[in-house]
Amino acid sequence: MSETSSTSAHQHYREATAGLLHVNTSTHLLFILLSIMTLSCTDRPASESTRSSVRLITLDPGHFHAALVQKSMYPNVDSVVHVYAPEGPDVQLHLNRIEGFNTREESPTAWKEVVYTGPDFFERMIEEKPGNVVVLSGNNQKKTEYIMKALEAGLNVLADKPMVIDYKDFQLLTEAFEVARQKNLLLYDIMTERSEITTILQREFSLLKEVFGELEKGTPEQPAVTKESVHHFYKYVSGNILTRPPWFMDVTQQGEGIVDVTTHLVDLIQWECFPDQVLNYMHDISVNSARRWPTDMTLSEFSAITGLDAFPDYLSKNVVNDTILRVYCNGEINYQIRGVHARVSVIWNYKAPEGTGDTHYSIMRGTRANLIIRQGAEQDYKPTLYIEPVGEVPGYEDILNNNLKKVQTTFPGVTLKKVSGGWEVVIPDHYKEGHEAHFARVMERFLDYLERKSMPEWEVPNMIAKYYTTTAALELARRSNVP
Q1: pTM higher than 0.90 for the full model?
Q2: How far from each other are the two terminal CA atoms of the chain, in whole angstroms?
């Protein structure tokens, strides 16, 4: 696509959504970094609580993230959870996971699931409204519509990413945020990666000007910030091989990779590079280029993760040679955010090599040092943060050690180890909770916001900016016709 046509497309995109941005102007709440050292407060059954002001409703739980929200108990959350879903394997897998949490030997949960299944599950939920918080994690095709209608019915919404998977529904999402504002409700998405310790410390060190300097502006060829994520269809969750719903491989239902996993990466760039700052997508975001490409999956591979021996009819449009399914789950976005060049990319492979798993790479380029997270063979496939000085800075090691003390006030035990090219940030194991535990951290944050009936003033406009970035990139990638 030419620069002129790209600019025209984005101008049209902004004009089509202009006027829909509304910012929650309630008093700004300082974001409190929740401790990631213990789950003691979340392991107590709800019956121990003096109040159960929060009553959860799980809607059509087609993704395993819906269950991970309930891997822990929360003091102010009722143990009774109402589930509304269509009949089928998705809801049964969800209930099996909850039962697994309830019956595990260590810190078992005590959830009581009240289930309604039927073709009118959504209408029944709206009619009965047995709770005040809807948890949404499943098929994304109607997710934005469900969000809007739940808010209109007076229900708060905690939604897994992505809350929107295309240009059309982005407009609906901005309207949903306005409905939430008018009704004094919360609409919030599940951003687990903000609780990952290497990312937290990357952010912490970037705020130390003597260590990091200023964030570079970068160029399209060498962005100031790059985040790359590699995922796998075949994986283990809670010790078991994850069964994927067949629609997970249909991008019209799950969403393309460029609007799915990249949601986390775009969120982290905003959260790390512009902490506690309000972003306006109409002025602060410019998508320069984007591309998408498929991962090919054989029928036998598809069967191994779904349990089906044939592709469903709705996937036939993406099947070639009768046995190869093409899934457009890979994508890359090159964009500018307040003049800073950024790049995010996501790749889905079928299965990770033995002993490995999902991986993450991230770099923030500063005028004094680069902060880099690597997760390759050298790191034993565990995310590791490095501080690598740029050029010669007199007395830099002493400066770094002095500033380390500031980090240690919040994260005792974090140290530095000299390595080739800089320093490795050595992080005690008790900070390394893992992805599944991060869902409790998000829930704790959401419950705090819910109790206050307010979020930090930057959360809503920055969610809108994030979903503008991903959906605008998808629109551009499709227009560009990049194979």
Answers
A1: no
A2: 13
